[in-house]
Specification:
This protein is mainly α. Helix content is about 45%, strand content about 10%. It is extended.
């Protein structure tokens, strides 16, 4: 019999805020707006860590492509 694979725990709002380096209110606002992937378990919000990492990676890639360099070519 093989041992079950370890399952990563769901993150709380506080853990997501820490990971994203934002305030907890920002996490709630992004969930309310439908921007941040989340699960609702009763009155609680929970997050799949891999989905949050992928969302953050996508956001950082999108943001990075929209950056205008300072002192660009004339």
């Amino acid at each position: 019999m093989t041992a079950p694979l370890p399952i990563e725990s769901l993150w709380t709002v506080k853990e997501v805020a820490t990971y994203l380096n934002v305030k907890r209110t920002s996490v709630y606002e992004r969930c309310r707006a439908g921007e941040l992937p989340h699960l609702r378990i009763g009155n609680l919000l929970r997050f799949v860590p891999g989905q949050i990492r992928a969302w953050a990676e996508k956001k950082s890639t999108t943001t990075a492509t929209n950056v205008v360099p300072i002192g660009g070519r004339r």
